[in-house]
Amino acid sequence: MMFRLRHALRLIFPSWCELCDGASEQAVCSSCEDMLIRMDAPFCLRCSEKFDGAADSPRDCYHCQDLKFAFEFVVTAYQMNEEMRTLVHALKYKKALYLDQFLGRCLRNVFLDERIAALNLSEWVITAVPLHFTRQRQRYFNQSEILAKTLASETEMRYLPLLKRVRPTQQQIRLTKTERAKNVAGAFAKNEESPCENVILVDDVFTTGATVNECAKQLKKQGVKRVIVVCLARK
User: Fold this and answer.
1) What share of the chain is helix, strand, coil (3-state, %, to 5)?
2) Sign of CA dihedral 85, 170, 101, 18
3) Strand spans (E) along 24-108
4) CA angle at residue 124 from 158 to 212, to 5 degrees?
5) DSSP 91-136
6) Total domain count, the chain
7) C-alpha 189: how far from chain center
8) pLDDT score recorded for residue 41
9) Domain around 128
10) Does a structural domain hold residue 129?
11) What is the DSSP letter of 208?
12) What is the largest CA-CA distance in the chain?
């Protein structure tokens, strides 16, 4: 009820902070934005797992040591804390679409990573992890697509819906790493041809990487040579 009231007020008086309900010219006030934690080094250069100390190779990362990823690496903009979780859940589950520009700007921080900053972006296209049509019909939108399109607009890159989800999958939140991989195996197929061999794949949150890895496998089957994953937050 409180969220519905807040959402209605925002439609009439859009100058409210999503996190503290204080007056703000943007969706999140500067004080609350300062509470978001950027994904700064040191972190794993493959899966973006945060480290307390230095890690020189993926072998030093417990998350990566036994995994084979179809993507080159993942870059996440922020660590997942309570404030970022609130924003992601508001967009994803409460239809807070007014957060799109703010979260899209947050996602653009992935371009501060020197590996992405060095890319010739004219040789890359952006796509998003798709939802199955039944879930998208229930939700009315795909939060990853919203972030991907906003990022494409911010960077003047091309967005293309290269993938589709061909079967519904179980919610991943309570599944183990192994269960997540089995859950999404074979769940994606080609939706559109890629005009180039390099794709930036956008998702909202990176946990084990099972979903984006399955997407990357499908993109590789379509002839894509390099896939880089970018996500708003890392659990």
Assistant:
1) 40, 20, 40
2) negative
3) 73-79
4) 95
5) HHHH--GGGHHHHHHHHGGGGGSHHHHTS-GGG-EEEEPPPPHHHH
6) 1
7) 19
8) 87
9) 38-88+109-234
10) yes
11) S
12) 52
Establish if 19 belongs to a structural domain.
no
pLDDT tens column, 65-111: 778 899 999 999 999 999 999 999 999 988 899 899 999 999 999 99
What's the CA gap between 190 and 211, in Å, rounded? 15
> Quick check: is 97 in a domain?
no
Place of tokens 């371009």: 111
Residue 11 lies in a domain: no
Mean pLDDT per 10-residue run, the chain (235 residues)? 55 75 90 96 90 62 84 97 96 90 94 95 96 83 95 94 90 76 88 95 95 97 97 95
Model-level pTM?
Answer: 0.90
Query: How far is 31 from 229, CA to CA, in rounded Å?
Result: 29
| Residue labelled with tokens 């061909």 | 166
